């Protein structure tokens, strides 16, 4: 199988699996238990939190919350911040580029009475920072933006956005860094909270992290035993947490070499694809090295996914989360891509396990698929 759907999920690293099993066997204790074994678990939890803050160079104002994934991290951060700020800063700014785990949250908050505004998008698929600056005021309590888009791979101008938002002390800046970690250099200066999902960087499904500056800015969105500052109640899952940190260390420490490796493969793939008449590249220049979005106008994305799947190539239409929805993809629409091109778009996504052989095999299968559909291309 040629697996080119790493933006949907990745294969867990063996040492992550081993860590998960080992901690389950030897340190399965509840870190909130007052006995010696519980204290040992608690010490390891705190040490792990210190290690990942150091790894990402986050200062002591940040707290680490382990969650079940970025959907939960985004919900805890966005709902938690918005509710705390409702009385004095009820405006929320985001863009249509965001993942549904952000967009659906802000839509629900709008139903609750928050004022949600969407910043303009440039033709390169980036947040228009001048427009953002013109939208800012003391009424804005929350700005949320992804680091890397999961459909096209464009990298957002996080430093510029952070600089603008930091001029407004009431505004919290949340970054969904799910598709960025391990792929591009991360930028978290002047950022107030960050979401990650373990299975996107060779960790396990059901593992996530939320980093929050000044945790007391958040109102809890669920209630229970009061673990994790009362923000994420429920028995702490130490084996999962230790395992995600293992994955995070290898993603972050190998980021530069992964970037170079992926960039080489992406460049090769793009020059290969460009040789085929009627096939177009959607991903903008300078986008993340792991995502390549291409269009075959005249052929439906689902047809292409099935055609590749027949040859054991796994890729996706727009993203796994939206590929089952019938509507045209909002991210591609926002970038001004034509309907025909959107309908015929597929996403290839590489990961740290992708090899030169995978790409060579993919090219051979691509030629077969192209022969089957070329008469339909417009
Ligand atoms: N944000 C982005 C940018 C994503 O790509 C995803 C996963 N597709 C998520 C958030 C949600 O992550 P999860 O499904 O692991 O909760």
Automatic annotation (TrEMBL):
Required cofactor(s): pyridoxal 5'-phosphate
Annotated InterPro entries: Aminotrans_V_dom, Cysteine_dSase, PyrdxlP-dep_Trfase, PyrdxlP-dep_Trfase_major, PyrdxlP-dep_Trfase_small
A Pfam family reported for this protein in Swiss-Prot or TrEMBL: Aminotran_5
GO molecular function: cysteine desulfurase activity; transaminase activity
Enzyme class: transferase
Limits of the Aminotransferase class V domain: 2-362
Keyword Transit peptide annotated: no
Coiled-coil regions, chain positions: 38-65
Domain of life (superkingdom): Bacteria
Alphabetically ordered keywords of this record: Aminotransferase, Coiled coil, Pyridoxal phosphate, Transferase
PANTHER family, sorted: CYSTEINE DESULFURASE ISCS 2-RELATED, CYSTEINE DESULFURYLASE FAMILY MEMBER
Name of the molecule in the record: Aminotransferase
Source organism of this protein record: Staphylococcus arlettae
